[in-house]
Write a structure and sequence with these properties.
Layout (H helix, E strand, L loop, with lengths): L1 H148 L6 H19 L2 E3 L12 E7 L8 E7 L2 E3 L2 E4 L1 E6 L1
Parallel strand pairs: 2-6
Antiparallel strand pairs: 1-4, 3-6, 4-5
Helix pairs in contact: 1-2
Length: about 230
């Protein structure tokens, strides 16, 4: 009986060992399945992460492209703005230059007009002064002529005075003074001053028959009218 019992115990032990091995195999199978499941899940997660990284990279690339476009547009706008500002500055400077040129041209024209006006006034003042002096000299010339007309022929003193008179008249002529032709000419109120009138059928109408006092011109103006006697 004792031996049978031992055999049963051994048998039980062997059964237990068999059960343990079966359980171990089941555990191993379960563990393998779990590990495989975990590996599949990890692979899927890794693929998802890679996809997300790829999408993120694509998004980043798109963002960089957009930033590049924005920067390009910003640079283009900046260039246009700089060009517009330069054009405005150039137009402003050109406007200032044109105003200064116009001002200089106007001042030059005004100066030229002033110079011409000054020269004209200076000439007029010179003529006025010359006429004033010559008008004072003419009575001296008249007295010279009266004295020479009354001088006797062959008088050496009178001959000397004739030479002085001739020199005086040459100087006056060089200064622009000349005698007004009157005797035998038609009366002209611009040059003649009629103080006497005579009737003479042998003479023409309004003819100067005698010069009572000589008249003189200074350049193109009358220095003194000729005092004359007019016929008819």
């Amino acid at each position: 009986m004792a031996k049978k019992k031992v055999f049963n115990e051994n048998f039980d032990t062997e059964e237990k060992e068999t059960d343990v091995e079966t359980e171990a195999e089941e555990v191993d199978d379960g563990s393998s399945e779990d590990v495989a499941r975990d590996d599949a899940e990890d692979t899927a997660d890794s693929s998802a992460d890679d996809n997300e990284d790829t999408e993120g990279g694509n998004d980043s690339a798109d963002g960089n492209a957009d930033d590049t476009d924005d920067n390009a547009e910003g640079d283009s706008d900046g260039d246009k703005k700089d060009s517009s500002d330069k054009k405005k500055k150039k137009n402003k400077h050109q406007k200032i230059i044109d105003e200064l040129n116009d001002k200089v041209i106007r001042q030059m024209a005004e100066f030229e007009n002033f110079r011409k006006r000054t020269e004209k006034e200076k000439g007029q003042m010179y003529d006025m002064g010359a006429k004033t002096i010559l008008e004072k000299i003419l009575p001296v010339v008249d007295n010279f002529e009266r004295g020479l007309d009354s001088a006797e022929e062959g008088d050496s003193f009178a001959d000397g005075m004739k030479m002085v008179y001739k020199q005086l008249m040459t100087s006056l002529e060089e200064a622009g003074v000349k005698e007004i032709e009157a005797e035998g000419e038609e009366f002209n109120p611009d040059y003649h001053n009629a103080v006497m009138h005579v009737e003479d059928e042998e003479l023409g109408e309004n003819v100067v028959v005698e010069v009572l006092q000589k008249g003189y011109m200074y350049n193109d103006t009358v220095l003194r009218h000729a005092m004359v006697k007019v016929a008819n």
